[in-house]
């Protein structure tokens, strides 16, 4: 028990002596501290004086433990007969208003305690009034199948608290904003009309119970206008109709309103389901910087409508809607939540102070800005409460007169001059901190015109591009254009940079979101121009997937690489939040796309080298396979039952198995399953084990390759499975063992040196790894093996000749040639060659090449890989240097540590010749014409 007297830290100064005496007379015999508080409160607030006179008996006991007293009032809000509810709730409201007012003036309760108490009573009052209204309709038989007991749970209807009530931030004399909905699925078609009518009547009854002005006053003024299109829709809507409205016509201000929405009364579970369904509308998956302009337009419209423009002058200033006021802070917070809340669920908090805190924690706001705005918000709300509790008026205006300011200062226990100075400082600082965010500034960091004169024909055609066809897109781009041209002018070859940017802009399907992002984050323009000037491939990718730029400002774009396990866990968490299979596939694509872009940008800007980028691309691909495989299996099992036997593993082959990929790599895989002795699955539509795993594998391929709304994930290549494209897409462990031990070609054993299990049951993975070791350890004739390798090299040279200097993969002395020799060395040593360097060491150990030659080949492989990685980032096909701009050429030469393109060409030619000669000499004795007869071609 905590006595109010012991909590007092301040009291209002006496303002009206007569009212102070009346307050003392209403509540005699109190402790001196309470008497002083009562007298001060009564002297400044006629409303509180009236409440003390009406509730004097209740106050005497409530002062002993005010928190318990208000909890009791809230708990007993509905504890009377329906015909007594109106007076009972009004009496409860008087008591809540009186105790919160006195505790607030005394400094005994924080702002949050005051607003929480008011909000909790509003919840209880809505619940009591709704139940009474529903009971009436149930008695009349208008809600089929419902009994009086169902009214307590809303009978299928929910009241959503919006605005300050939703955030538990109700002010002292606040309206309550409500949206009333009912779950139409609870009723048969024939009963729908009666149910809808009953809910409308229950809603009107609830609103009347709360807001009608009687001899006992009112409970809460109720506003039902936040529902969809209130001019034409009923006061209680079916949830399905509301969902359709928001999906097709919902506006940014409605999204912002739903940040604070919560079920307050009725069928809370149905309300939670509705808010979950609405989540994609409120929280966009990409960073939504376009919301800033929407919020700014709304602020300007409110100012114009209310006549609140102009400089800050205190008399009559609106603490809510005026310049530097409460709404400025709320808009600022909510808009930033809308921008990033789709990507980060932690930002989806209802309270304004909570929102500022989490924005600072997540680095979306500087900590000092969040702290300052939080302090001003609490101070503004405190002043708002004071002006409202004078006469229980729904006002947010500062006094117009000197006498009014004197009263307010007395309530705040301050001198008038100090109060006015503090108010002006706070309002001005809020305006300064928020206005720049909304109104923005010149996104160019170069106000002067670009010194370079660009081709006007290129500039003139920009307005014909899809991204600029909307008025809003064109307006945003007009603001960005001077800064973009200034940056393009700083390129080594401005004309080339302009054409590269022109190509990007022409492919961009829409521009509002990207242009909004660039406007608020000018530094991104430099990165964008750097990308489009350097890498046509990455620029084309970016034009199709501009939302990946979200990741750049998402907080960890330039942090350390998390690694395969952390990536897998992050994607698994993302997928667990989605309950629809197609949504999960799209979510995987969005997630992978951003990380893929990150690897490319880091490589392009020299933050990582080719070897690191290759490992990171592989980490990403493996993480995607590991997280998505269980999702595909679960979806397939839903139709056909659990996998028969021990399940299946995904085995990475080639570069995937070796954990080294490029920006455009396909994924080489095989699927190995073990049905044990289970013949078929046990689902609704059972399948024979062989058919089950074949179709499961195809489902995984589809999940990876299907061109969904977010594009494809990866291309999948399964030609390394037994019998190649002619064989089944999934192979049983027993069949795979039999094939590898008795029928496989040497090239298939070579491929097995780079095989690595990526996903699937651990016991089956262990068995496959043991089998791989067993196959590689088979005794084999050195001469026969190397002859096969020599023949394979000859076939590859015929089938895949080098396509110029920039082809790092095909041809003597290049990637595939060196890999083949390394795999041969590993096979002869009974080892794996997941790292080509290890395979080359094995080749040296088996006497195929010398130690000196080994190092030469390692160096050559590193050079070829750097070239392959760089060229795949620049172009999806074989690179043509005559189509590269200056920036692209610079990236290529930097990546291979050469001064010029000519020097690089010479270096590459020497590297290919030296490596090719070593491999040719090593295999020369076995290099005969290919044997005749049937031969399955190596992929």
Automatic annotation (TrEMBL):
CC per GO annotation: cytosol
Top-level taxonomic group: Bacteria
Gene Ontology MF term list: [glutamate-ammonia-ligase] adenylyltransferase activity; ATP binding; ligase activity
Keywords: ATP-binding, Ligase, Magnesium, Multifunctional enzyme, Nucleotide-binding, Nucleotidyltransferase, Transferase
Positions of the PII-uridylyltransferase/Glutamine-synthetase adenylyltransferase domain: 305-438, 791-898
GO biological process: regulation of glutamine family amino acid metabolic process
Entries under Pfam families matching the protein: GlnD_UR_UTase (PF08335), GlnE (PF03710)
Domain Glutamate-ammonia ligase adenylyltransferase repeated, residue spans: 45-275, 527-768
Name the record gives this protein: Glutamate-ammonia-ligase adenylyltransferase
Origin species: Sulfitobacter marinus
